[in-house]
Amino acid sequence: GGSMKFAFVGTGMIGSGLAVNAALRGQDVVLYDVAEPETVKGTVGKVLDILVEAGAVDRERADETLSKMSFTKDLAEAVTGADFVQECVPEKLELKHSTYRQIQEICGDSTVIASSTSGMFPSALAEGALYPERIIVGHPYNPSYLLPLIEICGPHAPQETIDRALEAYRAMGKEPVVCRKEVTGFIVNSLSWGVMDGAIDKVLDGVCDVEDVDKAIMYGPGLRMAVTGQLLTMSMGVQGGFREMAEKYGKTAARRPDQIEHYGQIADGVDEEIADRSGAQGRTVEEITKFRDKAFVGLLKLQGKL
Ligand code: NAD
């Protein structure tokens, strides 16, 4: 459809990066902060400079994008008529609560507010709000100006709120995922803590040194995970996909007896994941393999390994 109005409330490291994403996608973007608009404009300009330097956008498009963004110290001006508000103020519950109160007094129940919080649960954020059903988490991943991931979490919120957040993030060019339970670290930080704990154990147990832990990830699974995640990666090595992998290799891959059954239980999900991939990413094991190998070549060339 046409462009949506996005308000970014609190525009430090995270807010400025996400605002740039939305503006580059042609959305109507307003940034609100307690800092001076000129200061915020400077922060956003630096994000755009980074993107130009990295080759993501050209200078002309960056300048044009910056000129189309609005900066204000007036919260009412920022959020009036907004379709979607991304809250990126400092990680203080009281501050987030008072911010939602002010926004909802202006917007009523028509605007979805997503918090960038890394550590607060949506139920705590929504507590005492005028319209708790419109407050959810939309957790970005650093560097937010480049990494597409957004974790939506709002088990208390109606599906309509979640759907509107999904739509808003897609319009910003992000790749939203839905975390259906309030778990510490949501999906991805809790996964990376598992890898972090394992990595430290390898060093402290004398299995290998620090550099080899990181090399082992960077030159092997890290590359694969970048293209097919974890669960789809597991079905890539087998002609018959995940189900065959689960049957054939489940016994050796599993470290606990119950895991053999668990592998079978997620096979349908892997099928859905494959079906949902874009045509360019490949929708059969053969196509995905071709796409994967092309991606590896690009990354390895960049790293001077090819
Ligand atoms: P930051 O300190 O860089 O930015 C916070 C901004 O909020 C500043 O520009 C500040 O001037 C502004 N601010 C302060 N009080 C305000 C108020 N009352 N109203 C409006 N704006 C106000 O912080 P950040 O790193 O961008 O973090 C923002 C949120 O994003 C936090 O909830 C944090 O947990 C979350 N987050 C951070 C990261 C990260 O790596 N930095 C990653 C994911 C999520």
What features would you describe in this structure?
This protein is of the alpha/beta class and about 300 residues long. It folds into two domains: about 5-180, Rossmann fold (3-Layer(aba) Sandwich); about 220-300, no CATH class. It contains 15 helices and eight strands. An eight-stranded mixed beta sheet has the order 3-2-1-4-5-6-7-8, with helices on both faces. Helix 1 (about 15-25) packs across helix 2 and helix 10 (about 220-230) packs across helix 15. The longest helix is centred in the C-terminal third of the chain and has 18 residues, at about 285-300. The mean pLDDT is about 95. Nicotinamide-adenine-dinucleotide binds near residues 9 and 14.
User: What is the CATH top level name of the largest domain?
Assistant: Alpha Beta
Class by SSE composition = alpha/beta
CATH topological fold name of the largest domain: Rossmann fold
Q: Output the CATH homologous superfamily of the largest domain.
A: NAD(P)-binding Rossmann-like Domain
The poorly predicted ranges are: none
Shape: globular
In the sheet with the most strands, the strands line up as 3-2-1-4-5-6-7-8
**Counted beta strands:** 8
Small molecules held by this entry: nicotinamide-adenine-dinucleotide
Sequence of secondary-structure elements = EHEHHEHEHEHEEHEHHHHHHHH
Estimate what percentage of residues fall within beta strands.
5-15%
Task: Please tally the helical runs, counting DSSP H or I stretches of 4 or more residues.
Answer: 15
Through-space gap between termini: 42 Å
Q: Number of folding domains?
A: 2
User: Can you tell me the CATH architecture of the largest domain?
Assistant: 3-Layer(aba) Sandwich
Mean pLDDT: 94
Give the helix level as a range of percent: 40-55%
Radius of gyration: 22 Å
The biggest beta sheet is recorded as: 8 strands, mixed
